[in-house]
């Protein structure tokens, strides 16, 4: 853990929702940090941070009288997490401190759908990579991504909505639009114009191969066609322009029935799964 030696009492602060549904894995992490590393964790909402927090002249973030070394955001990713200026003030306070943020506001924004769309534009990857072979491998993995100011693509999506997905700048499941809902939303957004168009991107719909899977629901086992999505975890830590850590550190496999358009685990559309490698 990256705790300053001059702050032996420093804690990890976990940012949570006021009515948290995902508390059990949070407490598992809290117990692991305590038992394996002797590190204390406090759980706070953004409103509590605003009420109890301050930043000292040396940059130290203090919340409820405790110096905070790491801020771990388990909330703060949805508009509903910022119902008032109080929550925005708390986010600004955290960003202005020297505490390690997981993620910082810049890293948070890099994960938005809009950045994915920007990276898919011609010549953009070349700003970050020099090896042409690596660039070609990355581009091969990209689906089509477009902003809604591309009138030709928007027209195609209205005519053939089943070939596209309309995605807002949101995390988690339950937000994407397909088929009839996609067409109707695009027509409405075209009529409204303005900033509403920037809230979404269009993505080429992917049709992965489905496989027969054993599933259990309500204590009953049954077979259903399902599809899986593999995500690779990365750990990244920097101090200004100096990169301290940039490693791959595990994976997350999500599986859902192939008839479901959504894929969020916490939202109830998918389940956590594991990989079985074969020589087929």
UniProtKB/TrEMBL annotation:
Pathway the protein takes part in: Sulfur metabolism; glutathione biosynthesis; glutathione from L-cysteine and L-glutamate: step 2/2
GO cellular component terms given for this protein: cytosol
Designated name of the protein: glutathione synthase
Originating organism: Aegilops tauschii subsp. strangulata
Subunit composition and interactions: Homodimer.
Major enzyme class: ligase
InterPro entries reported for this sequence: Glutathione_synthase, Glutathione_synthase_a-hlx, Glutathione_synthase_C_euk, GSH-S_sub-bd_sf
Pfam families, alphabetized: GSH_synth_ATP
């Amino acid at each position: 853990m990256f705790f300053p030696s001059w702050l032996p009492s420093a804690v990890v602060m976990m940012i949570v929702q006021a009515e948290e549904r995902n508390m059990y894995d949070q407490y598992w992490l809290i117990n692991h940090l305590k038992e394996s590393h002797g590190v204390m964790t406090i759980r706070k909402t953004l409103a509590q941070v605003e009420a109890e927090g301050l930043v000292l002249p040396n940059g130290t973030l203090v919340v409820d009288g405790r110096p905070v070394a790491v801020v771990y955001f388990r909330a703060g990713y949805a508009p509903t997490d910022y119902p008032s200026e109080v929550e925005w003030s708390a986010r600004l306070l955290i960003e202005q401190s020297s505490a390690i943020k997981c993620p910082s506001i810049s890293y948070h924004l890099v994960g938005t759908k809009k950045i994915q769309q920007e990276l898919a534009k011609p010549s953009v990857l070349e700003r970050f990579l020099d090896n042409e072979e690596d660039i070609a491998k990355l581009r091969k993995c990209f689906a089509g991504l477009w902003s809604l100011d591309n009138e030709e693509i928007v027209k195609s999506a209205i005519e053939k909505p089943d070939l596209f997905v309309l995605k807002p700048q949101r995390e988690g499941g339950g937000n994407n639009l397909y088929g009839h809902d996609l067409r109707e939303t695009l027509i409405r957004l075209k009529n409204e114009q303005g900033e509403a168009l920037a809230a979404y991107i269009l993505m080429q719909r992917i049709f992965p191969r489905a496989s027969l899977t054993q599933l259990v629901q309500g204590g009953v086992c049954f077979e259903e066609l399902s599809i899986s999505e593999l995500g690779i975890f990365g750990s990244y830590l920097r101090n200004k322009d100096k990169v301290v850590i940039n490693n791959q550190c595990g994976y997350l496999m999500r599986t859902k029935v192939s008839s479901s358009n959504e894929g969020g685990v916490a939202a109830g559309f998918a389940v956590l799964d594991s990989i079985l490698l074969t020589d087929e």
